[in-house]
Design goal:
The protein is 24% helix and 37% strand. The chain is α+β, with helices and mostly antiparallel strands. The longest helix is centred in the middle third of the chain and has 13 residues, at 73-85.
């Protein structure tokens, strides 16, 4: 049984919960989103596997997941980057945000999301159970497409992208 870490609005752990139950009940839990850029400043996007329990087939940031109980965010991020995309790279936490949304299938995503940024110039070797496809995309191109086709992207990617646009270069 996979568990997530339940947290309060200040990211203090208040318990743990089975992952699907936390998503059914909309409980706030710890998560992370990884954004990996290459030397040209292009972002590595993944298209979520069609078998995912929510947002299948949508484009999202490089990796998004949850740390396990007792696992630091940074360690979980490196673990999941390797498990989902088949590589690892240095990561640095940039910011956090909280969001809540309900999906068409009745599940909620209510997360305290840690955003980590990394740099990598190779090609990923994605796990087909996690990612249907992948691509490197320029930020201007991505912003334009998100604006024109928001239905093709995950909810949290759109929030994080908006926050990243406000960061100093």
């Amino acid at each position: 049984m996979e568990e997530v870490i339940l947290v309060d609005e200040k990211d203090r752990q208040v318990g743990t919960e089975e992952k699907i139950k936390a998503h059914k009940e909309g409980k706030l839990h710890r998560a992370f989103s990884i954004f990996v850029f290459n030397h040209e400043g292009r972002l590595l996007l993944q298209q979520r596997a069609l078998t995912k329990y929510h947002c299948p087939g949508l484009w999202s940031n490089t990796v998004c997941s949850h740390p396990r109980p007792g696992e630091p965010v940074n360690a979980a991020a490196h673990r999941r980057l390797m498990e989902e995309m088949g590589f690892d790279c240095p990561l640095k936490e940039s910011f956090t945000f909280i969001y809540k949304t309900k999906f068409d299938n009745g599940l909620y995503e209510h997360e305290f999301d840690h955003v980590l940024i990394g740099s990598y110039d190779g090609d990923p070797v994605p796990n087909p159970e996690e990612a249907e496809s992948w691509k490197w995309v320029g930020m201007d191109e991505l912003r334009k497409d998100v604006k024109e086709n928001p239905q093709n992207y995950t909810y949290w990617l759109k929030i994080a992208l908006g926050r990243m646009m406000k960061l100093p270069s």
